[in-house]
Each structure stands twice: as C-alpha cells, then as structure tokens.
Specification:
mainly beta
Length: 334
C-alpha cells in the first residue's frame, strides 16, 4: 500500500483537542524548541478530526490518520472502509500497540448522526472498521492488553457491548448490563474482568468464561434516627481497580441524599467496606486514587470554624484485616 511504518511509541499520552480548532496543533508548532526537547514521551492526539503523533525524539508532528483528505496525505494507510468525516475520540491500550477510534460518518435522512468504531495498529499503521453505522455510543474503552473494546449502546437497549479489537474475531460479541443505568465498564489490570454498575448493583464479567457475576447489591444498611437498621438504595460511581486487580474503590451515593462516601470492594468475595473518614457532601467530597504500589490514598478538604483543613490518608490493603485496610500515613494541612 506504500504506507510508512509509524514510529514506535515509548509512552502514548492521550490528549484530546477540540476537533473544530487547531489549539493543540498550533501549540505544539509554536512551542519553543528548548521546551519541546524536554518532553519525555510521545503524544498521540486528535485535532481537527485527524490523528497526530508528536515524536519527542525528533520533536516533529506526524499526521497519522486523516479520514477527510481525499488523497490520504497521512503517513499511514487509512483503509477506505474506515474513511468518514472526523475522528472524534480515541482510546489506547496500555501496551501502546492498539487504538480504538470513534469516527463520524454523517447524518441520515431522518436526522440521526451515524458513527463508526475503527481500530488502528501503531506498528503497521493499519486502520480498519470494527462497527459501522451506529448512533453515537458512550464510554468507549479498550482493555489494557488491547484485545477487547467496550462501549455503551445509546439506543433503547443501553447495553454494554464487548468486542474483540481484532477484525478477524469480530463475531465474538458479548452484551452485558441490560438492566439500565450502566456505569463504569472498567477493565481489570490483567484484562480478564470487566467491572460495572447498574440500577441493581455491581457486576463482574469474566472474559475467559463469558460469565456475568452479580457481586454487590445496590443497597446499603444504615441506622435511622431510631437506631434501627434500614436499607437504602445507592448508586455506585467512579469505580477504579487496584493495581493488584482484586480490589476496587467505589464512590457510593445514596438516592435522595447529598451525602456520599468511598467504599473498598473485594471483587473475589463481594465484600464492601467503608473507607474511614470519607463521608462528605458534594462541596467537600473526598477524592481517592490508587498508588502504583497498591496503596489507596484519600484526600478530603473540610471547612471548619477555625480553619480549613486538607487531610491526606494512605491505606495499605490487608486481606486478613477485619476492615480490609490499615491507615499507614496521615498528613494534615491547615
């Protein structure tokens, strides 16, 4: 095809730019050469509907894919079956080998905007169609190993669709989360499990067996003003896997209430525990993140009468501990 092999990518850092402007493209063009030389990773980004690579070794910007160019002036071979209007979204696997793109196709006679989902292989520069002629999906994702893609079907079914990223295996289609309110679809670090929540609770999909497992109901027990234990329906959001792949952190939001907190979920046993000190309201909500060593960090800003307090706590995850975690470090800033 005469396509040029794309440069190898050391670390693909995804930056999405407004497709109707040249903000990022111009910024890279205009940055001082000295600053460009300090960039230590390649940057893959979308601008004006095209896919670009900033090569930090040569400080050059390379047009990888351009579905809007008639003669395909890009550096790689963009297959005609995936040539449409604009690339609007892209996700890249952790190995920096495979990308999945959402590409506009246009508007039908009845006014419905149509899209394609396309794959792209960085090593060969090959682009190919995975799904064609669908309404705009949401929550486009790719497994860390690049073998699976996910998206939420925005039609009436609202299912999570799971497909292989390899065009030759496209028939292996799975759908999960048919109960409505699908949220999350987060891959485990080893790409074996997909975790998501819906209106009924939290679910786990095992890619190897094809089995869906219901692990946490969408109810929590709390004490009312009379001291009685009552069940409240909750919504689970911002689910994040731990680096080990066994645990996940979850934001828990009771319905009809502004209060929220962070939970720690053991996906192996289905046990959920509250992370201490994370009860908060939207204006001072606790945020959390995982460290690479598997520790969990929570950050909470509190407004008190005499001072504003920022509290940062690090937790070590201990499976044998009754609370599943132990606070190992606490820092308070006034």
């Amino acid at each position: 095809s005469g396509a040029t092999k794309t440069p190898s990518i050391d670390t693909a850092t995804l930056i999405i730019a407004d497709r109707m402007t040249k903000t990022l493209t111009s910024a890279i063009d205009e940055v001082d050469d000295k600053l460009l030389n300090e960039i230590s990773a390649d940057i893959v980004y979308v601008a004006d509907g095209n896919l670009y690579l900033f090569d930090h070794r040569t400080t050059s910007r390379i047009l990888l894919l351009s579905p809007i160019l008639e003669n395909n002036q890009a550096e790689t071979d963009f297959n005609s079956d995936c040539s449409s209007s604009y690339i609007t979204e892209i996700v890249i696997d952790k190995l920096n080998k495979t990308a999945v793109m959402l590409v506009e196709k246009g508007i039908t006679a009845n006014g419905i905007e149509q899209f394609q989902i396309c794959g792209f292989l960085f090593e060969s520069g090959k682009a190919y169609t995975l799904i064609d002629n669908i309404p705009r999906p949401s929550d486009l994702g790719i497994s860390p190993d690049g073998k699976w893609i996910t998206y939420v079907d925005t039609t009436q079914s609202r299912e999570i669709v799971i497909l292989p990223s390899d065009q030759r295996e496209i028939g292996q289609r799975n759908t999960v989360c048919s109960g409505g309110g699908c949220n999350g679809n987060i891959w485990s670090p080893d790409s074996r499990f997909l975790l998501w929540s819906d209106n009924s609770g939290i679910w786990l999909f095992d890619v190897d067996s094809g089995e869906q497992v219901y692990i946490v109901p969408g109810l929590v027990e709390v004490s009312n003003q009379s001291g009685e234990e009552v069940e409240l329906p909750v919504i689970y959001q911002l689910i994040a896997w731990s680096p080990s792949g066994r645990y996940a952190s979850v934001e828990i939001h009771p319905e009809r209430s502004d209060i929220q907190w962070v939970g720690l979920l053991d996906t192996k046993t289905g046990r959920m525990v509250e992370v201490p000190g994370t009860h908060s309201y939207p204006e001072d909500r606790a945020v959390h993140t995982w460290n690479g060593d598997g520790t969990l960090i929570t950050v909470q800003f509190r407004v008190e009468i005499e001072a504003n307090i920022l509290e940062i706590i690090t937790y070590e995850i201990v499976p044998t501990h009754m609370d599943l975690m132990i606070a190992t470090e606490m820092k308070t800033f006034l």
